[in-house]
């Protein structure tokens, strides 16, 4: 696969994808309207590669689409039964690792984890729930932190560090004990430098970091992923930006 | 101005440590280690004090502190006892010793005594498998534990005798070299290899390295010359040489012996690497379990400086300046992965980076860095002295030279065995006196489990590759328990960065425990393999990719060890309803038959 017509393109499941040098496989795919499931990626932030939902097979080898650079002529397998089975297992792992109760969650309908689970037809958590005991921090006037729903994607860590320049959040601990810690002398969100205007307050793909008092400003049923499955919202996924206007939870539209 | 207050006493103990490290945040792991040594644990207040002194986020100190198994947030006592819990320690009876000590000191695992004096717990393999069961007391290794030694230690702790007043015999660590070849059996003449490399010139030395076809001894087997050349060709400066002495693979202890008795070769290998690639700084990343080696190694480095083998214009070569500093780990197996190791060198939690970029172009502080294993660097001195062609003739075509095996488990003579590559498993078993072996775990928990039918296979990158661990299991052993021990190990050591490893290793451990409890069925057997199919291809680094190997191997090769534990039904829930009611029974003060549920299924 090295003829000249491939100079600025590669293929995903046989479909030709153009790219500009420096783009990752995921960026090029989303720009071309091709969906690759992902959780820890955000177009405004540096690639991370931890959730592993976007794992694809590149020329026969497994790799994260969000961190691997697009190269001329590579052949990528993405939407295959094997890879989607694996993704479903990863989602089940995330569901049993934390405490996710969609019916009672303010994020329902705007939650990427939930949207992916619907889209990949995850009908049960399958594994035994860990039911971890995790704290809720309500000390901040405008934002609350519920680690029960955290999936360790570190989007808040990156947003705070790279956009807000604050380092409010960091991942601490190891293995199953991994958890987000807040940067303040007391470790509480209310004593941190987090402001409602920060990207870190709005980037969470699940319901771990939520803005207070706007939980149901948009009714359930009319939210981002209520209208169409996440896999049909490639344009949104590719072009969304972290809105730092705290007015309502529709900001991501 | 500090806004957090620690006591004046703690502050005065911490200050000289910070001063010694010039308040450098990239020394955080080293600072935390020394602070803990001085004040026993790193409370949130101490952590906040350090963050302010180092001008870094509070969260960063928490992130690093909470990552390493040997750093404690809460008081674990002035004596912190950890029992090495590798399968070889278990086979040597460490659990009975642990229980004896717990009983004598009236302790619960992981909990400090009421008087705040002592705590005991288990830890991952401490690299003393040929002289176990082993323990660590405040990170100092004690070998050859017996019930009597447990009693003696309990008395010393109760009497609050300082650790450096304990009998020296406790801390004796033997080399146990059983079969020596060109590395272990050749005398070392200090400086000779460095002079030989300089005589060959930078290009000449690299050419010899290429001819030798030397491959890394840490497990992955990457060609050393390719690594060196890529680093040499990288444009950025300065360049770094890192010796990976984070020998954490269960069952491996060869690097410990090399550092104890062959340190000259290790360091000279680093000097030669520095000369060839143009590096100016070197690090030895020594696993925290080998703290006892720190002082002798520092003394050795001082000797090398005095002899002109480190420092400025080494070997009379103008501008060839190179020195080595030692960093200690703090109980994290994943730091053996080279990018995690670099993160740790930079003072952070040891989470593996995304590769590429590889360390040869972007390593320590984003600069070109060569990371080589201890044994690999020793081999470099042989190539400098004798040339690549001479070296290449030893071993097999794809695996040149000799390899040191750390032999432990069921055999008459555990210890180090050095062979030319290509030696058969059966030969090693014969040499170490293992008559009735039914299985050998080669290359540690992440390696491969070989059954009797495979003892004709050879140690070589093209057949059975190994980082050195060679654990033997006799016919009395239960391979299910071996795999379960490894499953616990990986769940404990997973860094938590990627989903499949963070969650998958825990799920695998829980399923193994369920089978051990007699509640597993065919369903769980299938689940183990299903998890392996996600862990292996989906994990971020080698830890997760190999974490299910031992389970998958033993399911395949020692299936009866699993099957005899399985319940004869389609499925038994992990949740035990009757056991869950025990608290209710306790509250109701009842334990009669009517307060119990009948046996399910």
Question: Which key features would you list for this structure?
Answer:
heterodimer; A: 253 residues; alpha+beta; 2 domains; three-stranded antiparallel sheet; 6 helices; B: 601 residues; alpha/beta; Glutaredoxin; Rossmann fold; 6 domains; six-stranded mixed sheet; four-stranded mixed sheet
Layout of helices and strands, plus pairs?
The complex is a heterodimer of chains A (about 250) and B (about 600).
Chain A lengths: L8 E4 L2 E4 L6 H7 L23 E4 L2 E4 L10 E3 L3 H17 L14 H8 L16 E2 L5 E4 L8 H9 L5 E4 L6 E4 L26 E3 L12 H4 L6 H6 L14
Parallel strand pairs in A: 1-5
Antiparallel strand pairs in A: 1-2, 3-4, 3-5, 6-7, 7-10, 8-9
Chain B lengths: L7 H13 L7 H12 L4 H11 L3 H8 L13 E6 L2 H5 L2 H11 L13 E6 L11 E3 L2 E3 L4 H12 L18 E3 L12 H21 L11 H10 L6 E6 L8 H8 L1 H15 L3 E6 L7 H13 L16 E6 L9 H8 L23 E5 H13 L1 H5 L9 E8 L5 E6 L4 H8 L4 E6 L5 E4 L17 E6 L4 H15 L5 H18 L5 H17 L3 H5 L2 H9 L1 H5 L13 H4 L1 H7 L13
Parallel strand pairs in B: 1-2, 5-11, 6-7, 6-9, 7-8, 10-14
Antiparallel strand pairs in B: 1-3, 3-4, 10-11, 12-13, 12-14
Helix pairs in contact in B: 1-2, 3-4, 6-7, 8-9, 8-11, 8-14, 10-11, 11-14, 17-18, 17-21, 18-19, 19-21
């Amino acid at each position: 696969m090295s003829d000249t017509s491939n100079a600025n393109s590669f293929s995903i499941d046989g479909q030709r994808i153009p790219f500009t040098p420096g783009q990752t496989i995921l960026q090029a795919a989303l720009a071309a309207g091709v969906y690759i499931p992902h959780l820890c990626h955000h177009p405004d932030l540096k690639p991370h590669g931890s959730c592993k939902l976007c794992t694809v097979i590149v020329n026969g080898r497994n790799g994260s689409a969000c961190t691997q650079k697009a190269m001329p002529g590579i052949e990528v397998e993405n939407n295959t039964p094997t890879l989607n089975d694996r993704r479903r297992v990863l989602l089940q792992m995330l569901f049993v690792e934390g405490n996710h109760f969609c019916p009672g969650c303010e994020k329902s309908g705007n939650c990427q984890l939930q949207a992916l689970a619907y889209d990949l037809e995850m009908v049960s958590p399958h594994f035994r729930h860990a039911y971890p005991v995790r704290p809720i921090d309500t000390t901040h006037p405008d934002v609350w932190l519920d680690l029960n729903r955290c999936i360790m994607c570190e989007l808040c860590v990156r947003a705070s560090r790279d956009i807000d320049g604050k380092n409010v959040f960091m991942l601490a601990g190891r293995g199953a004990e991994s958890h987000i810690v807040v940067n303040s002398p007391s470790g509480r969100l209310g004593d941190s430098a987090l402001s409602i205007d920060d990207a870190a307050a709005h980037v969470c793909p699940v319901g771990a970091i939520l803005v207070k008092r706007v939980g149901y400003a948009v009714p359930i049923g009319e939210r981002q992923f209520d209208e169409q499955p996440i896999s049909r919202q490639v344009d949104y996924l590719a072009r969304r930006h972290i809105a730092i206007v705290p007015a309502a939870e529709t900001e991501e539209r | 101005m500090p806004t957090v207050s620690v006591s004046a006493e703690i502050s005065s103990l911490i200050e000289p440590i910070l001063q010694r490290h010039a308040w450098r945040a990239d020394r955080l792991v080293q600072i935390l280690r020394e602070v803990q040594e001085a004040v026993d644990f790193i409370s949130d207040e101490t952590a906040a004090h350090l963050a302010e002194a180092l001008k870094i986020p509070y969260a960063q100190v928490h992130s690093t502190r909470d990552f390493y198994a040997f750093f404690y947030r809460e008081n674990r006592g002035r004596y912190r006892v950890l029992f090495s819990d590798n399968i070889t320690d278990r086979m040597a009876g460490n659990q009975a010793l642990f229980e004896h000590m717990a009983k004598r000191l009236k302790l619960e695992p992981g909990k400090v005594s009421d008087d705040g004096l002592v705590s005991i717990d288990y830890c991952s393999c401490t690299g003393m498998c040929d002289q176990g069961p082993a323990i660590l007391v405040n990170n100092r290794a004690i070998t050859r534990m017996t019930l009597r030694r447990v009693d003696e230690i309990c008395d010393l702790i109760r009497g609050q005798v300082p650790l450096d007043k304990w009998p020296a015999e406790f801390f004796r660590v033997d080399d146990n070299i059983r079969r020596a070849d060109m590395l272990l059996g050749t005398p070392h003449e200090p400086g000779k290899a460095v002079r030989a490399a300089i005589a060959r010139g930078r290009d000449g030395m690299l050419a010899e390295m290429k001819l030798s076809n030397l491959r890394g001894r840490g497990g992955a087997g990457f060609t050393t010359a390719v690594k060196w050349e890529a680093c040499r060709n990288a444009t950025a400066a300065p360049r770094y040489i890192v010796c990976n002495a984070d020998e954490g693979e269960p069952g491996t202890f060869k690097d410990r012996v090399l550092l104890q008795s062959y340190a000259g070769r290790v360091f000279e290998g680093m000097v030669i690497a520095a000369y060839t690639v143009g590096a100016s700084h070197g690090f030895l990343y020594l696993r925290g379990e080998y703290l006892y080696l720190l002082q002798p190694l520092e003394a050795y480095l001082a000797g090398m400086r005095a002899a002109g083998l480190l420092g400025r214009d080494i070997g009379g070569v103008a501008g060839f300046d190179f020195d080595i500093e030692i960093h200690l780990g703090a109980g994290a197996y994943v730091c053996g992965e080279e990018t995690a190791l670099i993160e740790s060198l930079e003072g952070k939690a040891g989470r593996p980076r995304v590769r590429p970029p590889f360390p040869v172009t972007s390593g320590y502080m984003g600069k070109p860095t060569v990371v080589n294993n201890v044994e690999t660097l020793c081999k470099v001195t042989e190539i400098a002295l004798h040339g690549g062609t001479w070296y290449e003739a030893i071993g097999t075509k794809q695996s040149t030279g000799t390899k040191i095996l750390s032999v432990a488990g069921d055999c008459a003579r555990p210890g180090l065995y050095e062979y030319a590559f290509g030696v058969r498993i059966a030969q090693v078993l014969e040499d170490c006196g293992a008559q009735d072996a039914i299985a050998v775990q080669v290359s540690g928990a992440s390696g491969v489990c070989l059954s009797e039918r495979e003892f004709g296979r050879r140690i070589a990158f093209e057949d059975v590759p190994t980082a050195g661990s060679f654990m033997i299991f006799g016919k009395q052993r239960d391979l299910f328990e071996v795999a379960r021990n490894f499953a616990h190990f990986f769940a404990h050591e997973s860094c938590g960065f990627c989903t499949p490893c963070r969650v998958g290793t825990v799920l695998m451990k829980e399923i193994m425990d369920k089978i051990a409890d007699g509640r597993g069925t065919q369903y769980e057997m299938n689940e183990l393999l299903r998890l392996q199919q996600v862990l292996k291809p989906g994990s971020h680094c080698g830890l997760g990719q190999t974490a299910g190997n031992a389970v998958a191997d033993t399911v395949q090769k020692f299936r009866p060890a699993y099957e005899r534990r399985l319940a004869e039904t389609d499925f038994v829930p992990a949740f035990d309803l009757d056991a869950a009611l025990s608290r209710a029974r306790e509250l109701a003060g009842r334990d009669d038959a009517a307060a119990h549920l009948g046996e399910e299924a």
